[in-house]
Amino acid sequence: MAIELVPFPLPASADPSKFADFGREVKGINPGTLSPEEFEQVKDALYKHDALLFRDVVLTPEQQYALTKAFDPQSESYGHGNNKTGSTKKSILHPDLKTIPRVPQVQLIGNGTVYNHEGLAEAKLKHPSHTTFHKTRVSPQDEANGITRFYRWHIDAALYDLSPPKVTTLYGITIPKGDPQIVRYDDGTGDELPVPLGTTAFVSGKTMFDILPAESKSLAVRTKVKYAPHPYVWMAPAHAMPTGLGIESEGLELPLGELPDWEEERVKVFPVVWKNPGTGALHFQVHPCGVQELLVDPLPQGAKREGALYPDGAHITDLKVVRETLYKMQRPAISPDLVYPHDWRKNDLVLFHNRGVLHTVVGAFTPDQVRAFHQCNLAASDDPAGPSEEDVVKWA
Ligand SMILES: [Fe+2]
Q: Polar residues composition bias: which ranges (predicted)?
């Protein structure tokens, strides 16, 4: 059957000019039984459009694992390492993940109690809430009136030892009904975004780069971020910003000596900007919560020094400066008109280019609002590529 690509239905809040390439609904093929030719078309579409939606899908965990693995045939273990990081008691990811026993690379996530599910007699799920992660919280009264927040903008990645997954597949099995909510940014801007209950929100890393002023683009293509060892354990005692875009600098991170055993060679240092393997476009891909240091290269020969940030390069280790520098570059891209909040329907399958977008859990459910999703991503067989020499010369 011919593959058909249809633009995502955008909410009124979104600026359509910024979503011309982002997101396509795929029609005419079954994602559980793709032929090699169909898969190549899907892969091509994913790198071009960064998020793909299939509606009314019936997909076993085995099929979901096979589809996810097809993007990187040498990858095998779950993106967080067969749940090792997630199961470390101190990790902030610990409560969010339940593994499907038959296919441990597929996780059951959601809310409420799910019974007799794919070999799990009973699974108690909890939708993560900003109230346990942000430094401040929406008042219970406002929450009752439907006000909420972005939980945590991120890339799906262990950020230590393992390479960031290329794709994440999210399959909505049980979707509770409920009133829409309003995300409040609470950062002094007055920004708000109406969202469907329990949306997953996405922003494009390409747009994040494209909308930066020239001096920030120059800094972005010259900078690498160094993540903390076991970043989810390291950040566990700390609190997030009200936008969910990074951590408040209060000095609460676990000292490196108190982390589980780690080795310097396994610490991840990634370029700020990742090159899309399908289109060659540059995507600003930083998981702000886990970053510890910035390594800035000097301007390349012949670049204009006037107005340049860190023209001679820098190694920034002051956590507050590191975070403020990243926040200034990332915050513009999460403004309400640049966010795609997916309105989940039962049997939706969303594939997203995990190396090309940032995403976040949103909102809050009551315990009786049962939600069940299957999520799969696999630690990649390689690290992401940064900008080419030509890219650096062009943008620095
Ligand atoms: Fe995620």
A: 74-90
Distance 384 CA to ligand 1 centre (A): 18
Rg (the chain; Cα; Å): 20
Q: Total domain count for the chain?
A: 2
Q: Enter the tokens of residue 164.
A: 């960031």
Complete DSSP assignment for 20-82: SSS-EEEESS-TTS--HHHHHHHHHHHHHHSEEEE-S----HHHHHHHHHHTSTT--SBTTTT
pTM score: 0.96
pLDDT higher than threshold 80 for residue 81: no
Tens of pLDDT, residue by residue over 15-45, are: 999 999 999 999 999 999 999 999 999 999 9
Tell me, in angstroms, the distance from the centre of ligand 1 to residue 132's CA: 17
Q: Decide if pLDDT at 115 tops 80.
A: yes
Q: Ligand 1 centre from 156 Cα, in Å?
A: 5
pLDDT digits 0-9 by tens, 142-187: 999 999 999 999 999 999 999 999 999 999 999 999 999 999 999 9
Are 251 and 369 part of one and the same domain?
A: no
Looking at residue 135, what is its pLDDT? 98
What's the whole-number mean pLDDT along residues 134-139?
98
The span from the CA of 286 to the CA of 270, in Å, is 8
40's CB contacts (< 8 A; 6+ apart) are none
CA atoms of 44 and 230, how far apart (whole Å): 33
Q: How many Å lie between the centroid of ligand 1 and the Cα of residue 155?
A: 6
C-beta of residue 256 within 8 angstroms of C-beta of residue 227: no
Confidence of residue 84 (pLDDT cuts 50, 70, 90): very low
| Distance in Å, CA 110 to ligand 1 centroid | 12
HSE toward the beta carbon, residue 390, CA cutoff 13 A: 4
* 199 within 8 A of 362, measured Cβ to Cβ: yes
Distance (angstroms) between ligand 1 centre and the Cα of 139 equals 26
Do 310 and 370 reside in the same domain of the chain?
no
Are residues 212 and 200 both part of a single domain? Answer: no
Query: Would you give the DSSP letter of residue 240?
Result: B
